[in-house]
Amino acid sequence: MIDLITYPYSKGYCLNLSDGNNWWVTGYKDGIEYSARFANILRLKECSPNNSPKLIFSAHQETEKESHSFDISAPESNTGWRFCENDVVSMWYHNDSNDVICEFKNNSMRENLQYLAMWLSLQPIFHRSVKMGGLPFHSALAECNGKGVLFVAHGGRGKSTCCRRLPSHWKPLCDDETLVVLDKDNRYRAHPFPTWSDYLNKRAENSWDVQYSVPVSAIFLIQQAESDRIAELSKLNIPFCMSVFANHVLGRYPQYIQQMTQKEQNEVKEHIFNNAFDITKSIPILQLRVSLNGRFWEEIEKILGL
Fold it and tell me: What range defines the domain where residue 271 resides?
């Protein structure tokens, strides 16, 4: 039987975030193909094995004995293993290891579902940054003169449109998911993450430099309007609102949370709200009312002092 945690992997890719949340992405047998595609989308470079936790992709094997050295039917107290799954991916964790195994359910499943499995495999990465003071957001991210701006909204409310309309001196970095982290100097930086629906819906084969980060200067909640204007928000409601947009990302794989103990689940909820509250104290969070044909970015530039 194969122990996927201690297996001597030789090929993998480094994923390093500015809060020190670092991973070594690799794969077992056919899983190395998945890790290579994942690395290409996230613009990860191949690197030698290191001391970072491993994110291990594994293709589903014909028999359990071919792929695992543990028995999921045994009580956790006896094995130390925890397990969660949905229709496309199973995730395995061990109490004595920071490594995560992502087993793709079926070698012959449709290609777009393989990308869905890759998307869900980001959950342990996001959750570790949450423990370190960060939050993922359902948002777009753009940069101007070294300053990062998040455009936060529910799906179909204008995030992608805002990015497309920005003039050339702005640099759109992503339009769907952003990870805000707390760096070693206690400053908030934002990392762009993929728009996985581009792959799921076969729109485009884009890539995103997830290791690149930019200081967060402001966060804007988008609202469609007749004219462009920036408005204040109720400071009492902002932490709750930020928690909602974070949970939109963290809740995509509810089984990941469900495999935790009740104490761990409560700690995650506490981290999310406390991090949202701290972000609210440190970063201006405003409402951006965006018209159909206006120059909304000029309002943002006034706030940023550009």
Answer: 131-304
Q: Are residues 156 and 295 located together in one domain of the fold? A: yes
Question: Are 112 and 160 within one domain?
Answer: no
- Please report, in angstroms and rounded to a whole number, the separation of the first and last CA atoms in the chain: 60
pTM equals 0.92
CATH number of the structural domain spanning residue 236: 3.40.50
Domain boundary among 78, 103, 121: 121
pLDDT band per the 50, 70, 90 thresholds, residue 61: low
* Structure tokens, 142: 């753009």
Cα four-point dihedral sign 303, 188, 144, 223: negative
Report whether pLDDT(290) > 60: yes
